[in-house]
Prior knowledge:
Elements: H1 2-7, H2 13-21, H3 26-33, E1 38-39, H4 40-46, H5 52-64, E2 68-73, E3 79-84, H6 86-89, H7 91-105
Antiparallel strand pairs: 1-3, 2-3
GO molecular function: DNA binding
Keywords: DNA-binding, Transcription, Transcription regulation
Pfam families: HxlR
Amino acid sequence: MKEAQKDLHIECSIEKALNIIGGKWSFLILKNLFTGTKRFGELQKAIPNISPKALTDTLRHLEQNAVVTRTVYPTVPVTVEYSLTAKGQALNKILKEMKLWGSQWA
């Protein structure tokens, strides 16, 4: 019985949320998308120290977790836009509270 308890891992809801938004760049990307749809280049300019690879990886992670949608337009060159899903918009209040906490306690 004790062996089965060792193998059992119950993931808490806070842990699940942090797995989705806990990346180094996620907060800054989300902050920029709260103001509306952005192209890759707009996000890169708004977050000066982020590398193209880090931006791509973070956007893919957020897209896989249904926080961000990626829309491709068949233009020349191809236009790609990123926007928040309803799930992503729901993070706005949480991140504002974290910002307030950080300004008070950090």
